[in-house]
């Protein structure tokens, strides 16, 4: 699909993940097969496993700000500052009214509400002990808003409630706002504080969708015959995005160009994905980019390690890419679990360095491939060197049937 819209590129990545707090470390661990899943215990639920982040919370925040704000806000602040640093940007040279912050989330506020209920329960539910910080902590725009407070950004900010497609949606929104000329610089991606709410673990357990294995690092095992559910993870990733001409004018290193995207809805079920709509979403992103399936080098799957969800997605991927001898397929959740609203952004970030190193990071923990999940070009166990990589398709799907796909191309 031809377009006269400005070209938008990624010039920086700021992230915290269960197996790395910067892009270089994260990529090294993906190539080395290092999982970030560890034992975790949470109030009312008990022992389980989770993907836990260990970033330096006080690098960009004072302790008072940490106490007043949220874990999701702290993650977003880390990612925003790191993304700007990685891009070599000095905000003092920008009109801060022309900088936008767009953060995808799965849910926000559960952690803070659970904490407050626990706190007042210790005082016989005397609500005079309820924190006056609760409202700003729980509003939907909190993570993006905390970034603007931290960095003095006065342009637009908001969060996009896109379930587990949220990370892709934050990137898409940032791209569109740059193309429309609404902002001159954008931070877009997603964050998650999900591991700090016992409710999400209890709900997945009730659904029969919470993964288990004696070894925490092997619980997340998409496509494996013995997979039995997801690993809940926290994390975040924000990209610095600019119009191509602006990035070139300042001599910025360009990590990739956003060339295609699509979002649609299954309109079928609360949780079970619909392959037909996923196919339409993938093909929509390809059409927008003016690419054929055979021109895509890497497809990063959404697969969460649930028995039904993985099969449904594989049906869709086979329909679009089954005839492509060029396309390699991988999965990042096998390393870090499911980072919910941050998942799409973190998974794209983990594959972006392939433009430089020519390697496709593998899917780990596939001891016995489920025949229903067999995919041509699936990379398992070890990285696969494929030479020059031109295009990456990142897939993220979520509850209530939201589907997203983002295509990024090498930009030399």
Question: What does the largest sheet look like?
Answer: 10 strands, mixed
The outline comes out as: globular
Report the end-to-end length measured between terminal Cα atoms.
21 Å
Over all CA atoms, what is the radius of gyration? 20 Å
Percentage of helical residues? Answer: 25-40%
What strand order characterises the main sheet?
A: 5-4-6-7-1-8-14-13-9-10
| The CATH H-level homologous superfamily of the largest domain | Thiolase/Chalcone synthase
Architecture (CATH level 2) name of the largest domain: 3-Layer(aba) Sandwich
CATH class of the largest domain: Alpha Beta
Strand content: 15-25%
Number of strands: 14
Structure commentary:
The chain is α/β, with parallel strands linked by helices. The protein has two domains: 8-249, Peroxisomal Thiolase, Chain A, domain 1 (3-Layer(aba) Sandwich); 260-409, Thiolase/Chalcone synthase (Peroxisomal Thiolase, Chain A, domain 1, 3-Layer(aba) Sandwich), CATH 3.40.47. It is 33% helix and 21% strand. It has helices spanning 23-32, 63-68, 71-87, 110-121, 134-138, 142-151, 166-179, 198-207, 244-249, 275-289, 307-321, 333-336, 343-351, 354-357, and strands spanning 8-16, 37-42, 46-51, 99-105, 157-161, 185-192, 235-243, 256-265, 298-300, 328-330, 359-360, 384-385, 391-398, 402-409. It has a ten-stranded mixed sheet with strand order 5-4-6-7-1-8-14-13-9-10, sandwiched between helices. A two-stranded antiparallel ribbon has the order 2-3. Strands 11-12 form a two-stranded antiparallel sheet. A hairpin with a 3-residue loop joins β13 (391-398) and β14. The radius of gyration is 20 Å and the shape is globular. The two termini are 21 Å apart. The mean pLDDT is 97.
């Amino acid at each position: 699909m031809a377009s006269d819209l400005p070209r938008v590129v990624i010039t920086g990545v700021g992230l915290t993940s269960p197996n790395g707090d910067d892009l270089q470390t994260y990529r090294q661990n993906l190539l080395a097969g290092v999982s970030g899943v560890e034992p975790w215990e949470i109030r009312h639920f008990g022992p389980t496993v989770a993907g836990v982040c260990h970033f330096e919370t006080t690098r960009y925040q004072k302790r008072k700000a940490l106490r007043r704000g949220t874990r999701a806000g702290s993650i977003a602040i880390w990612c925003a500052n790191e993304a700007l640093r990685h891009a070599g940007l000095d905000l003092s040279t920008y009109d801060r009214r022309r900088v936008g912050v767009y953060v995808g989330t799965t849910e926000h506020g559960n952690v803070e509400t659970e904490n407050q209920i626990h706190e007042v329960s210790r005082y016989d539910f005397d609500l005079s002990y309820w924190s006056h910080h609760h409202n700003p902590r729980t509003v939907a725009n909190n993570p993006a808003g905390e970034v603007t407070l931290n960095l003095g950004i006065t342009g637009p900010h908001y969060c996009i409630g896109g379930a587990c497609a949220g990370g892709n949606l934050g990137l898409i929104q940032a791209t569109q706002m740059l193309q429309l000329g609404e902002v001159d610089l954008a931070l877009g991606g997603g964050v998650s504080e999900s591991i700090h709410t016992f409710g999400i673990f209890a709900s997945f357990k009730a659904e029969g969708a919470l993964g288990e294995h004696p070894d925490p690092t092997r619980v997340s095992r998409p496509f494996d015959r013995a997979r039995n559910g997801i690993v809940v993870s926290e994390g975040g990733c924000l990209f610095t995005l600019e119009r191509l001409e602006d990035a070139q004018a300042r001599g910025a290193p360009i990590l990739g160009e956003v060339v295609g995207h699509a979002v649609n809805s299954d309109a079928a079920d609360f949780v079970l994905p619909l392959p037909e709509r996923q196919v339409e979403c993938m093909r929509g992103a390809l059409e927008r980019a003016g690419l054929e399936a055979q021109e895509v080098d890497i497809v990063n799957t959404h697969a969460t390690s649930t028995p039904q969800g993985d099969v449904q997605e594989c049906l869709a991927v086979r329909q679009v890419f089954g005839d492509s001898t060029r396309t390699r397929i991988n999965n990042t959740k096998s390393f870090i679990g499911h980072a919910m609203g941050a998942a799409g952004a973190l998974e794209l970030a983990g594959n972006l360095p392939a433009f430089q190193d020519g390697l496709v990071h593998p899917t780990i923990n596939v001891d016995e491939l489920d025949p229903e999940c067999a995919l041509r070009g699936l990379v398992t166990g070890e990285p696969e060197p494929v030479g020059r990589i031109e295009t990456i398709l990142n897939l993220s799907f979520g509850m209530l049937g939201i589907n997203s796909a983002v295509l990024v191309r090498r930009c030399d």
